């Protein structure tokens, strides 16, 4: 049977679920019939090829990639006997033409500043330039590393992570009401233009949130207001981009799928296998990620922000041409 992406995905899924090569062969035989069954040697070659492809992928040249937005997130997987779950960092971006790109994946012993700096500098060493906005959760080591490696870029804290932190300090009875008010802070009316006016409007709404909930949930209010400028960095950018650049959900959802698959086996069989299989899941998911549409006005705004930050633009769409990113 000719190898296809769909077939490889089935094999990958079987491996991630902890099936042996014999189990995968039997499963495919049941699904496809004896005449279309895949041998154990073929299964082994597919899985080994994934590792080879991953090794080549994470050493590839990135000098031709020009980013506007960089997203970084981590998930934890058990990959060593007797050890706790260890972080796996992933980075993806949106190019200056609005196209999504999966950039880097690697394991680190801990989300320390040094480990995160090493992860980010690996991309820089392969030619990646500075984005204008980086988006991450609030992990201290990662935040510090992003500030060190991309000091000129704006930094946006993931609003979904911050919403969870706020709601963790609220009783179940009021959780839905607080959640609605939290998102009202950032879901600004259509007439609100990007820039300082949008940031000021979000600030007024945050104060209204505080007035409503401080008496009942002071810790939740403090959580919202702490580092508030990092929650509103996206409001300086083109309005149509706001829903995509204010959180890291795209990677997190795919990480969640990987975690669900490995839960049944407890741990993955070694670091190299873990990374290559998680990469395979993310790489195939990335083929369906949607880009962002850039209008001429959006391009001009991003050019203005780049000039203000002093970040060189390697490559950019023509300012008078509307570019539309690929869709799933």
Written overview of the protein:
The protein has 328 residues and is an alpha/beta fold. The chain has three domains: 1-57; 62-155 and 249-328, Nucleotidyltransferase, domain 5 (2-Layer Sandwich); 159-246. The protein is built from 14 helices and five strands. It has helices spanning 5-16, 21-32, 40-57, 113-125, 140-149, 159-167, 175-186, 196-213, 218-225, 228-231, 242-245, 249-263, 271-286, 296-309; strands at 67-77, 86-95, 100-107, 133-136, 154-157. A five-stranded mixed sheet has the order 3-2-1-4-5, sandwiched between helices. It is globular, with a radius of gyration of 22 Å. The two termini are 28 Å apart. The relative contact order is 0.15.
Helical element count? 14
Structural class: alpha/beta
Beta-strand residue fraction: 5-15%
Distance between the termini: 28 Å
Mean of residue pLDDT?
A: 83
Query: What is the third-level CATH name, the topology of the largest domain?
Result: Nucleotidyltransferase, domain 5
Tell me the count of domains. Answer: 3
Name the CATH class of the largest domain: Alpha Beta
The count of β-strands is: 5
Written as H for each helix and E for each strand, in order along the chain, the element string is HHHEEEHEHEHHHHHHHHH
**Widest beta sheet: strand line-up:** 3-2-1-4-5
**Helix share, percent:** 40-55%
Low-confidence stretches: 315-328
What characteristic shape results from the CA principal axes?
Answer: globular
Instruction: Write down the Rg.
Output: 22 Å
Reported CATH architecture of the largest domain: 2-Layer Sandwich
Main beta-sheet strand count, sense and barrel state: 5 strands, mixed
């Amino acid at each position: 049977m000719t190898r296809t992406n769909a077939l490889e995905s089935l094999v990958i899924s079987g491996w991630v679920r902890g099936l042996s090569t014999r189990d995968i062969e039997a499963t495919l035989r049941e699904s496809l019939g004896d005449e279309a069954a895949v041998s154990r040697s073929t299964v082994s070659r597919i899985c080994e090829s994934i590792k080879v492809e991953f090794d080549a992928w994470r050493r590839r040249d990135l000098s031709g990639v020009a980013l506007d937005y960089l997203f970084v997130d981590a998930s934890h997987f058990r990959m060593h006997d007797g050890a706790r779950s260890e972080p796996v960092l992933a980075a993806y971006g949106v190019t200056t033409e609005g196209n999504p790109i999966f950039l880097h994946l690697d394991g680190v012993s801990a989300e320390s500043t040094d480990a995160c700096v090493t992860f980010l500098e690996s991309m820089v060493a392969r030619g990646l330039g500075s984005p204008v906005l980086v988006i991450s959760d609030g992990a201290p080591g990662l935040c510090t590393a992003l500030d060190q490696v991309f000091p000129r870029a704006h930094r946006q804290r993931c609003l979904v992570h911050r919403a969870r932190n706020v709601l963790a300090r609220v009783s179940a009875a009021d959780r839905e009401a607080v959640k609605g008010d939290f998102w009202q802070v950032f879901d600004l009316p259509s007439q609100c233009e990007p820039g300082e006016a949008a940031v000021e409007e979000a600030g007024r709404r945050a104060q209204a949130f505080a007035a409503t909930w401080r008496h009942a949930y002071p810790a939740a209010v403090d959580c919202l207001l702490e580092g508030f400028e990092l929650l509103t960095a996206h409001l300086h950018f083109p309005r149509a981009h706001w829903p995509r650049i204010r959180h890291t959900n795209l990677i997190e959802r795919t990480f969640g799928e990987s975690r669900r698959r490995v839960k049944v086996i407890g741990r993955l069989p070694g670091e190299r296998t873990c990374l290559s299989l998680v990469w395979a899941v993310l790489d195939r998911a990335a083929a369906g990620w949607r880009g962002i549409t850039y209008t001429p006005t959006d391009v001009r705004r991003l050019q203005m922000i780049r000039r203000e930050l002093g970040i060189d633009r390697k490559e950019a769409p023509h300012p008078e041409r509307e570019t539309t990113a690929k869709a799933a």
